[in-house]
Amino acid sequence: MSSHIEPVDPAQQRLFAGLVTGVDLTRRLSDHEVAGIHAGMDRFGVLVFRGQRLDDEQQISFSRQLGPLEQATGDIAAPQDRRVSMEVNDISNLDKHGELLPRDDRRRLFGLGNQLWHSDSSFKQVPAKYSLLSARKIPASGGNTEFADMRAAYDALDAATQREVHDLICSHSQIFSRAILGFDDFSDAEREKWAPVRQRLVRRHPITGRLSLYLASHAGGIEGWPVPEARAFLRDLTEHATQRQFVYAHVWQPWDLVIWDNRVTMHRARRYDPMQVRDMRRTTLSNEVSSLDQAP
C-alpha cells in the first residue's frame, strides 16, 4: 500500500496539517517513502501519523532516515535521572521509575514552559529542523498540542510590517522563557549553558522559498531595540501569529506520531490533570546551520 497525504482540516486549513496513511514507521522506509515525507513536510509543515506503535529505538531509527538528530540537551534532568537516551526528549510528567513527578518538582515546573508558544531549540545556536513526537500514554482529557502556521502569519502582515521585520535579529534563551512563568531556579552552569543566542525573525524556507516568522517564548530581545519596546513588539507578533485561523489543535490518540517543521511553525502543549500520566517521546532533527546562515 502506498502512502497518501490529505489535509486534516480541508475546510479551514487546507495546506497546514496533513494526515498520512499507508505507511508503517516501525520498519525501514524506502528512499521513495522518505522523499514523500519530506515533500509532505515542505507542503504542510505538520504531518500526523496514526497508530504508529514505536519504541524508542524504532523512533530513533525512523528519525535518522530523515536527517541528523540533535542531542536532548534542552531539559534540566540530571544524567542519572533520565528515563531515556540522549537522543530522545522525555516529554512526560514521570520520573525514571515511572512515577508521577510531584507537583512542585523542579523538572515539572521547568517543563511547564512547553505550554508557552515556542519553536523547539530556538535557544540553540543551531536550532531544530523537524520535531517528531510519539504519544505513548495520554491523559483522559486535555494535553492537546496546538500548532501555528508561521508562513500564513507572515503572509497576513501588512507590507510595512513585513519590511520592518525582514532583517531583524532576536536573542533567544530558555532563561527568558521560563522567567515569563516566574521560574528562575537555575544553576550558574545552566545560566551559562542557556546564554542568549541570535536568530533571524524572518526565515526563508530553503525548498519552497516561502517566508515565515520565527518566533518563540524564548525570544526576549531584538538587536538595536530597547528591551521593553522589543518585548512589546514580539508579543504583538505572537498574538497575531496565533490567531485561530492560523492554528491547528491536535487531539492526541495513543500511538500518534506527529512531525512538525520548527522553521515554519510554533507550537504549545495544553493543560491537563497533573495526576494523570502523559508520556510522550520526542526526537529532534538538527537544522544543521544557524538561521543566520540562511539568508531571508
Strand arrangement in the largest pleated sheet: 1-2-3-13-5-15-4
> What is the succession of H and E elements?
EEHEHEHEEHHEHHEEEEHEEEE
Second rung of CATH, namely the architecture: 4-Layer Sandwich
What is the CATH topology assignment?
A: Double-stranded beta-helix
Going by CATH, the homologous superfamily would be Clavaminate synthase-like
Stretches with pLDDT under 50, minimum 5 residues: none
Mean residue pLDDT: 96
CATH class: Alpha Beta
Number of strands: 15
**Terminal residue distance:** 39 Å
Q: Helix/strand-derived class?
A: alpha+beta
Shape: globular
Number of helices: 8
Number of domains: 1
Helix content: 10-25%
Q: Approximately how much beta-strand content do the residues carry?
A: 25-35%
Biggest sheet, open or closed, and with what strands and sense? 7 strands, mixed
| CA radius of gyration | 18 Å
Commentary on this structure:
The chain has 296 residues and is of the alpha+beta class. It has one domain (4-288): Double-stranded beta-helix (4-Layer Sandwich). 24% of the residues lie in helices and 26% in strands. It is built from eight helices and 15 strands. The protein has helices spanning 31-44, 56-66, 106-111, 150-155, 159-165, 174-180, 188-193, 227-241, and strands spanning 4-9, 13-21, 46-49, 89-92, 128-137, 145-149, 169-172, 197-200, 202-204, 211-213, 219-222, 247-250, 257-261, 265-269, 279-286. The strands form four sheets. The protein has a seven-stranded mixed sheet with strand order 1-2-3-13-5-15-4, with helices on one face. Strands 12-6-14 form a three-stranded antiparallel sheet. A hairpin with a 3-residue loop joins strand 1 (4-9) and strand 2. The longest helix is centred in the C-terminal third of the chain and has 15 residues, at 227-241. The radius of gyration is 18 Å and the shape is globular. The model has no long low-confidence stretch (mean pLDDT 96).
